[in-house]
Amino acid sequence: MNPLIHYHVDAELALIGLARPPVNALGQPLRAALLEACEQAQADPAVRAIVLYGANGLFSAGADISEFGTQASCAAPDLPGLLQRLTSMDKPLVAALGKLALGGGLELALACGYRIGEPGTRVGLPEINLGLLPGAGGTQRLPRLIGARQALDLILAGTPVNSETALRLGILDRVAKHADALLDEACAFARELLGDRAAARPDVPYPDPAGGLPDDFFEHFLEANAPRWKSRLAPRLVLDALQAACRWPLTEGLAHEQVLFKQAEDSRQSAALRHVFFAEREAAKVPWIEADLPLRPICKVAVIGAGTMGGGIAMNFANAGIPVILLERQQDALDRGIAQINRNYANSVKRGKLAPEQLEQRTTLISGTLDYADLRDVDLVIEAVFEKLEIKQEVFRTLDEVCKPGAILATNTSSLDVDRIAAVTSRPHDVIGLHFFSPANVMRLLEVVNGRQTAADVLATTLKLGRTIGKLPVVSGVCFGFIGNRMLEPYAREAHRLVLEGASPAQVDNVLTGLDLNMGVLSMLDLAGIDVNFLVRDANRTAINHDDSYCRLGDELYALGRYGQKTGRGFYLYDDRERQEDYEVIALAERLAGELHIPRRPIDAQEIHDRCLFMLINEGIQLLDEGIALRASDIDLVWINGYGFPAHLGGPMHYAEQLGLDKVLRGIEHYRQTLGAYGEMWFQPAPLLARLVAAGKTRIERF
Predict the structure, then answer these.
(1) I want to staple 621 with a disulfide (CB 3.0 to 4.6 A). Which of 54, 556, 611, 686 is the partner?
(2) CATH top-level class for 484-694?
(3) Which of 12, 36, 39, 107 is the catalytic position?
(4) pLDDT tens-place string over residues 216-258
(5) pLDDT of residue 411
(6) Closest to 687 measured CA to CA, from 633, 636, 624, 644
(7) 3.60.21.70, 3.10.450.50, 3.90.226.10, 3.40.47.10: which CATH number matches 5-265?
(8) Is 265 annotated in the active site?
């Protein structure tokens, strides 16, 4: 028998175990081995029922994602054909779902007549997260099992459900008492079916999956969700497939599903989302860190500063079961910080996202202090005080004195020089940047800033810890703004300058949101705070290192006290967060343009797109060339998870590859030539971009 399959006959049962570690991905080799085993069981007259299970305890996490977009994806036996064959067998098939049955793994289980899970089993169809739809019967068999509405919700959510929910929905027929008993109970289930002379496949509970739904259900569903989906293709294809399940016989629905799946698989959006999937796995790899490097234990954490950022950071550790101490200078500030954390948790309980006992467990893990001496036994301390170098350096001098040897000293700075902060300590090898994004208890991105002297085990420990607390850690070197905020500077620069040249703030932002960014750059500055942006820019004018007259508009808004949403005025007017165009800003831009001798003119959407996006891309390529970013895909992760760049565009670097690097270079050179002295100063192609185009390369990589 093929080594990818464990095959054993136990009396009248054929036990077929999937054995392709680590997750039994259903690539072509395993599909072929599984088909061979099932055909053997079908042909054996001594076998009356078949039990499928995961030989390593896990059923299957789905298809082999590396096959998508290649010939291997449809190489015989393809998954839809394999599952069709299983449904035609005249012997009962029982799927024993250990740990995970996701995507193609769940579709395999749905092709079996019966399913049993274990208490910890999670099942789901996450293909939507890759810009795909279930393509091996999921959109056709699941609605016939649990109804169209519940199937639609499950597929569009793309998140797995636990065994209790799966049993309630009808995806599972039974749940074993415990994981160790799963296979035994699956065999007992199969023998019970034989004793009852049960059919190989029972009748489906929902022969009319849309039964009870209004006739115009799908039309209204599309109308309600289209604004949220924006230009995403996959949700629309899922809806199309579910409609087919409700209107056509199974055979015709399966055929239509295949057409839709191929359309999704061939789309740029799916290619981009698959790029993001693999990028997340690559981000965990640091070339100079050995896999067996011992890590530092992190059992207790401290956070300096109990403001919005510090409190959010503390919540991450409490959520992961790690005790954390919040330190503040004044008792009233500490009390406010703790109270805000408690309100955040209470709101989670109200929304049903947290059980009351979890609230109590997490709040008890967070304590407060006014005394640095209480930090003497912590394993990690994260500074989250005002973004001013001298203040942070003073904090680190104190931490150097009070923290135990081997404690990791981290700064949450968003732009300052981590090496200059480390230099005031006697242990710069223990210092690292951990840049959380606001709100820190929600945002997934964590920029891990590796200082010049940061020890390898400090970097490795914080990367693992980031994943433990549910973050996506991405390594950056030390420079102004690291990866994300350094790229934000030229991106925001062009937005400011375009308004001076004649575009309105709404015109600039609408081009960017038309590309499916969560918000335009000027709206983002209003949300973050015009004052915050000014203070960061003001503290780093030497790092910008050029004439900064382009940001005079932002400077003037700051001087006028127009700080954005929190003051009701910034680039826009706000009425309870509802954004409105403000013609005073346009008049201000006209005045400043006159003072700066900047000609004003009509500006079209293409110019806004190219100037903002090409300079964002150009800066990312420069970061890669300097070694600040380890790989182009890391840059994509930063901008998707920290700045709202659409995942279905793959991030700015992947987007540039799709546009064509030669097109990006030509655009930058065009504006260098046509924007006069401003173009000469700012539109300088990154040398790596020029080298890539000259070499005929289509991928962004250092060489």
Answers:
(1) 686
(2) mainly alpha
(3) 107
(4) 999 999 999 999 999 999 999 999 999 999 999 999 999 999 9
(5) 98
(6) 624
(7) 3.90.226.10
(8) no
Q: Quote the distance between the C-alpha of residue 244 and its chain's center.
A: 31
What does the buried/exposed string (b/e) look like for 135-152 if buried means 16 or more CB atoms within 10 Å of the residue's CB?
Answer: bbbbbbbbbbbbbbbbbb
Q: Where are the alpha helices (DSSP H) in 132-216?
A: 138-146, 148-157, 163-169, 182-195
Q: Cβ distance 104 to 39 under 8 Å?
A: no
* Side chain identity at residue 295, one-letter code: L
- Whole-structure pTM value: 0.95
β-pairing, 174-175 with 161-162?
unpaired
Assigned superfamily of 301-476? NAD(P)-binding Rossmann-like Domain (3.40.50.720)
396: amino acid identity, one letter: F
Token pair belonging to 609: 């797109």
Question: In this predicted structure, what is the pLDDT of residue 290?
Answer: 93
- Sheet hosting strand 324-327, strand order edge to edge: 366-369, 324-327, 301-304, 380-383, 408-411, 431-436, 445-449, 472-476
- Per domain, the residue ranges of the chain are 5-265, 301-476, 484-694
Q: Are 195 and 189 in contact (CB under 8 A)?
A: no
User: Which listed residue (118, 127, 185, 501) is catalytic?
Assistant: 127
Q: Averaged over 32-61, what is the pLDDT?
A: 97
Active site residue 280: no
**Could you read off the pLDDT of 99-156 as tens digits, one per residue?**
999 999 999 999 999 999 999 999 999 999 999 999 999 999 999 999 999 999 999 9
Phi, psi of 700 (to 5 degrees): -85, 115
- What one-character-per-residue DSSP string does 333-383 give? HHHHHHHHHHHHHHHHHHTTSS-HHHHHHHHHTEEEES-GGGGTT-SEEEE
